[in-house]
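FAQ: What does a ligand-bound record look like?

Like this one, built around DQA:
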Amino acid sequence: MNNKIIIINGPNLNLLGEREQSQYGSVTLKELKEICAKKSNELGLKIEFAQSNIEGELVNIIQESRKKFDGIIINAAAFTHTSVAIRDALDVFKKPIIELHISNIYKREDFRHKSLISDIATGGIFGLGVDGYILAINSMQKLLQNGN
Ligand code: DQA
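The answer part, i.e. the structure of the complex:
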């Protein structure tokens, strides 16, 4: 049976392509979803793509993922730096988690240098633009293939 993964995007990522193009590039969230679907399809992964600006909604999505998905790729956006609730929800998901950031959070303001997610994630990707999503899907496929 095909592995199923979810890509979860946090606040303001619905504005990709419009907001701070110098940090995030010109690809829109809709285009990114299509790119991710194509890549997942090539690798034989089933994929769901989610975005919310609301912390509690993201917590609900993560909680529901326990029963529905084999892996989570998450760009928690600004909540990465603030949300104990999202961290705690991810901590209950006992399967692979990849933390993702489009920009290099360590090259930016100090408040972005702290991630509440990194130490409970399986691994992470940052600073490689939206290509990071492709890399994350590739890595997730390998993790799941190797029985992680
Ligand atoms: C981000 C980095 C965060 O600091 C920021 O709040 C975002 C996007 C990224 O993908 O680079 O919204 O997660």
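Follow-up question: can I read anything off the structure? Yes, for example: The beta strands are 4-9, 46-51, 71-75, 97-101, 123-126.
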